[in-house]
Write a structure and sequence with these properties.
182 residues, alpha+beta, 3-stranded antiparallel beta sheet
């Protein structure tokens, strides 16, 4: 009878993101965004314009696909774990009604957004200064994040904002009125 100290995943065993990776994810969300008083500044919780999309692009080794039975990083976080960590850290969620693209009628669905948050604007020198300061703090607290530099984050933000899917050119999200059909 052998006693092994290594726990091997078995069928039905779930992987869990590490607390450290969750902490890094929350700090990252604060690096790439700012709190806002504007009711139109909201960042989607899911999809290609979410905090998780930016985080997984910048730190793929700290994330994991929950559907992968043998993830390369068993302690990486999923989008659900990141969103729960952000909510626990005080980020506020709203359900925003949006037009469903391609629908034959003006269909609406509820999409979750982070309320009163906006992406840093890569074209604004004050936002870039804030990014550099926040990123230096992230690197100091979490040395494993030093592989990412400000230019990588600026490129990620530029890509997310340029998609246009509900983001204005300054990085804030459009209001519901902007989504209504003409």
């Amino acid at each position: 009878h052998c006693c092994c100290s290594v726990i091997r995943p078995t069928v039905g065993m779930r992987f869990k993101g590490s607390d450290r990776n969750k902490q890094i994810a929350v700090r990252f969300a604060n690096v790439v965004s700012l709190a806002s008083n504007s009711p139109t500044d909201n960042i989607v919780c899911n999809g290609s314009r979410s905090f998780f999309a930016a985080f997984s692009r910048c730190f793929p080794d700290l994330t994991r696909d929950p559907k992968d039975p043998n993830p390369a990083n068993a302690t990486g976080i999923t989008i659900i774990e990141m969103n729960k960590s952000l909510a626990a850290a005080g980020f506020k969620i709203i359900r925003k009604r949006e037009h469903v693209a391609g629908a034959s009628k003006f269909a609406k669905r509820g999409a979750r957004h982070w309320r009163h948050r906006r992406w840093l604007n890569p074209k604004d020198s004050r936002d870039i200064s804030q990014l550099n300061t926040s990123l230096a703090d992230l690197h100091k607290s979490f040395p494993e994040t030093r592989s990412i530099v400000a230019d990588d984050i600026i490129n990620t933000l530029t890509d997310i904002i340029s998609r246009g899917d509900g983001n204005t050119s300054d990085g804030s999200c459009m209001s519901d009125a902007d989504d209504a059909p003409a």
